[in-house]
Each structure stands twice: as C-alpha cells, then as structure tokens.
Specification:
The protein contains seven helices and no strands. The protein is mainly alpha-helical. Helix 3 (55-73) packs antiparallel against helix 4 and helix 4 packs antiparallel against helix 6.
Length: 140
C-alpha cells in the first residue's frame, strides 16, 4: 500500500503546475457566477436588484465578474486574488458572521473557502495555463 501511495504522489507531482492552474480556473469560473447572478440574474435569479453604486450587489458583482475573469485567464493573478480574498473576508464578516464560526448555520462556507483559496493564489500565483506566465516569458 505504501508503494502505491508513493507512486501516486510522485505521479501527481509531475502535474502540480497544471493542477494548480485547474484549481485557479475552476475557482474563477464558479466565482464569476456569483457576480453574474448579482449583475444579470444569471445563472439563477438574484436575491436583490442590481444597483451599481451599492456595495452589494453592485460593487461586489463587479469585483466578482471582472476580477473573476482576470483570474480565469491568469492575468495579474496575485494582486487580483489578494483584493478578491479581502472582498470575501469582508463578505463573511459583514453578511455571514452570525452565529460566529458556524458556517453551516450562517451560510458562509463559500465566502470562507473563497477567501482562503484566493489568499493562496495571492501568495503562490496562478499555476499553469495563465497569461502571467506568457507575460513573464516575453519580458525575459
């Protein structure tokens, strides 16, 4: 059994950059849907009417759609992910914090997970298949 686990770990480690990129792409795709729900009522009806000059759903929707699109293509990944991570921390504490730390009761699971996944991208970059990699190669 130990040999199988070691072989699996070694085999997956060859694909680390690509798997990292897939996590970024998948996260961004799902994140964008939160914004399109707020802005356009798509893919499901929004909870409230979209008003651009409001924090929610206005500013939040714009951050989620346009920041998510930048993450999706892997452009300016670190600074965008940092801003979006802060946005999700703000969302958790302003919308979901009560009752404290019980994400099942307060509906804050998605906000908390996005916060920390995006913080990871802010620290580690976007992985494979991102435009940041293309720009870095062209600048050398």
């Amino acid at each position: 059994m130990g040999g199988l686990i070691c072989a699996l770990q070694h085999g997956l480690s060859k694909w680390q950059s690509e798997i990292h990129g897939l996590l970024r792409i998948t996260t961004a795709f799902m994140f964008i849907q939160h914004g399109t729900q707020k802005m356009f009522g798509f893919p499901v009806e929004a909870y409230s009417e979209f008003v651009l000059l409001s924090v929610v759903p206005g500013f939040a929707g714009v951050l989620q759609v346009f920041g998510g699109a930048l993450l999706l293509v892997g452009l300016f990944t670190r600074p965008v992910a940092f801003v979006l991570s802060g946005h999700m921390a703000f969302a958790y504490w302003m919308v979901h914090a009560y009752p404290l730390f019980n994400t099942r009761a307060n509906g804050g699971e998605a906000a908390a997970l996005y916060c920390f996944i995006l913080l990871y991208f802010a620290a580690a970059g976007g992985g494979g298949w991102g435009l940041d990699n293309v720009l870095r190669k062209n600048s050398n």
